[in-house]
Design goal:
Number of helices: 15
Order of helices and strands: HEEEEEEEEHEHHEHEHHEHHHHHEHHEEH
Oligomer: single chain
Structural class: alpha/beta
CATH class of the largest domain: Alpha Beta
Strand content: 15-25%
Shape: globular
Helix content: 25-40%
Distance between the termini: 61 Å
CATH topology of the largest domain: Rossmann fold
């Protein structure tokens, strides 16, 4: 007679994953041990599933797989996020947890697996935001949805390699966590009803930057098959010399002399977090943390001098929102809504992030967009010169490589914030997750938001399943330099050739240097 205990035992002994049900709750035996979730409207949910060992034991070092367990562990609550400034919830260095939503367990259905990597640059955020709840997306689109936490800021990217062992990989520990999570997905997808040969990584803002970095990491090769970056790009990584200057500034702020770098291994978390308040010696402001070109974790820049050859065959969808910088520069600063033409060049000087004469920019926009106010020019120019510019570069490099790439632009304007933020940065998160009515989704939750979301999730799943986001009623050509085909998402979506081409040409006259790198 095969009992639940003998089934678990045989699966664990074989080093494989499987699923059963225990007392009405779904139980999956992962490669490390059994986890017990719950059911949410026909979707099996597992929250706080451990994919890596406690990183308090390996601070600044590569992550390790979990130590095996045998008794079922409840997976009904999100795990803690990495310690960070202004954390939205529970935090701990022991943060290598992921969350799974699936409409079927171990049923051989081979569903697409969607792995979401959260934003917040490399410094903040978690995989437990209400807007990234995967239940509705999993149920309506018949997919396995996964979100996760990993090490951030100093815990993920403090560059200590010059101080020797055990710090050789410290500049990339956070992205090595992502590699470990994707290895977990590869090994456990079948038990959760997914297809380990059909894994799509998607991420917004910093999440997109992390995906671009993974595409250039040898350790990540073969772990995912499609990539979607939403308003998040990573052209270059931090150079080791600048990273070391930031490390010195950090160590000075926490009162640790350079020769005593190993003292950081046991320093209290609160003391280390105070180091985040140090002034960045390169940029000013807070310290920048991100992957380092250390030739240990990362041996080349993500998208310099070309698109990463190792990922040439991975289809990539690269998107942005029309009004990205309204989120950063227009939510709380009322002064931008009272800008005059005389004051505009000075304000642009601080925000363009490329070395171009702001008076020339204003003159060009007054010719290209004669109906725009100074405020509208400010938001359009800062968006075009910053995050959108990097997206265009990545698309151009992929096209030059002959690699499959698809461009989208979100034009739908949310009614939230009185409508004045338009299609702002982060708006595509609830639209892509089909969570337009979630708390803090900022979509207004109306019929138009749902219409746009339905189009975006349909494209996402078509892309995940086939490597192309086209549908019979919504053809979407690949991005080529001659046409620059771009899907423009709105209540009535369409494909346009080179939207905002005049803005693209204006800023292509000057080089783009990714901030912090």
């Amino acid at each position: 007679m095969i009992t639940r205990r003998t089934l678990w035992g045989s699966l664990l002994a074989a080093g494989s994953a499987g699923s059963v049900r225990a007392e009405g709750a779904p139980v999956v035996v992962t490669t490390s041990g059994p986890v017990r979730g719950y059911v949410d409207n026909a979707v099996a949910v597992f929250k706080g599933v451990r994919y890596g060992d406690d990183t308090r034991l390996t601070r600044f070092q590569p992550p390790r797989p979990p130590r095996p367990w045998t008794a079922p562990i409840d997976a009904t609550a999100y795990g803690p996020a990495c310690p960070q400034a202004h954390a939205p919830g529970r935090t701990s260095e022991d943060c290598l947890f992921l969350n799974v939503w699936t409409p079927g367990l171990g049923d051989g259905a081979a569903r697409p697996v969607l792995v979401y990597i959260h934003g917040g640059a490399y410094s903040t955020g978690s995989g437990s935001d209400p807007a990234t709840d995967g239940a509705r997306l999993a149920r309506r689109r018949n997919a396995v949805v996964i979100t996760l936490n990993h090490r951030l800021n100093l815990f993920g990217h403090l560059y200590l390699a010059p101080y020797g062992a055990p710090f050789e990989a410290s500049g990339g520990a956070g992205v090595l966590d992502l590699v470990l999570a994707l290895q977990w997905v590869r090994d456990n997808a079948i038990a959760f009803g997914g297809d380990p040969a059909c894994v799509t990584v998607f991420g917004q803002s910093g999440g997109g930057a992390k995906i671009a970095t993974l595409m250039a990491m040898e350790a990540a090769k073969g772990l995912f098959h499609r990539a979607v970056t939403m308003s998040g790009q990573q052209l270059t990584a931090s150079g080791p010399l600048h990273a070391q200057e930031r490390t010195r500034a950090f160590m000075s702020a926490v009162g640790t002399p350079e020769p005593d770098a190993k003292a950081l291994l046991t320093a209290p978390v609160d003391r280390l977090l105070k180091g985040l308040q140090a002034v960045d010696p390169i940029l000013g402001g807070g310290l920048y943390f991100g992957p380092v070109l250390d030739h240990a974790v990362l041996s080349r820049h993500p998208f310099y001098p070309d698109a990463p050859p190792q990922s040439r065959t991975i289809p990539m969808m690269i998107g942005n929102t029309l009004d990205e910088t309204r989120y950063f520069l227009g939510r709380t600063d009322e002064s931008v809504y009272a800008l005059t033409w005389d004051a505009l060049p000075g304000r642009l000087t601080r925000e363009l992030r490329v070395d171009i004469d702001p008076r020339l920019v204003v003159q060009a926009y007054r010719q290209m967009r004669p109906a725009f106010s100074p405020t509208e020019v400010f938001f359009a120019a800062t968006t075009a010169s910053r995050s959108w510019r990097a997206a265009v570069v990545e698309l151009e490099l992929r096209a030059a490589q002959g690699a499959p790439a698809y461009a989208y632009q979100l034009n739908w304007r949310s009614p939230a914030y009185g409508g004045r933020l338009g299609a702002f940065h982060t708006l595509d998160i609830p639209l892509m997750f089909d969570t337009v009515r979630a708390d803090a989704a900022d979509t207004g939750g109306g019929a138009d938001a749902q219409t746009v979301s339905d189009q975006m999730t349909a494209a996402l799943l078509a892309f995940a399943r086939t490597g192309a986001p086209s549908e019979p009623l919504a053809p979407w050509p690949a991005y080529r330099l001659a046409e620059r085909a771009t899907r423009v998402f709105d209540v009535t979506s369409r494909v346009e050739a080179d939207p905002r081409g005049d803005e693209r040409r204006l800023f292509s006259a000057v080089p783009f240097i990714q901030q912090g790198t």
